[in-house]
Amino acid sequence: MNNWTLIHKGTDLVHANILKGMLEENQIPVQILNKKDSSYLTFGYIEVYVPLNMKELADNLVKQSLLN
User: Fold this and answer.
1) Residue 32 has pLDDT above 90, yes or no
2) CA dihedral angle for residue 14, residue 38, residue 4, residue 49, rounded to 10 degrees
């Protein structure tokens, strides 16, 4: 994932998928990396990545979505 950058890190897979859908609606490719422990769901994170050249646009869209 050399050309991808992290734009969100959290514990809620549903929230990550909502962000993914919103970004894909705006033609931004998205990858979700689930680093949660499968036995103890309180450990680990869900990470959302976008291409490095689309980071600024993705950050702006995520900030706008959090304001609404």
Assistant:
1) yes
2) 10
- Whose tokens are 């894909």? That residue is 24
Q: 4-67: which CATH topology?
A: Alpha-Beta Plaits (3.30.70)
Reported for 36-40, long-range contacts at CB under 8 A and 24+ positions apart, including other chains, are 36/11
**Contact present, 18 and 26 (Cβ < 8 Å):** no
Per the document, the length of the chain is 68
- Rounded to whole angstroms, the Cα distance separating 38 from 2 reads 26
Task: Quote the CA–CA distance of 2 and 18 in Å, as a whole number.
Answer: 24
pLDDT for 1 = 66
pTM: 0.86
Q: Where are the domains of the chain?
A: 4-67
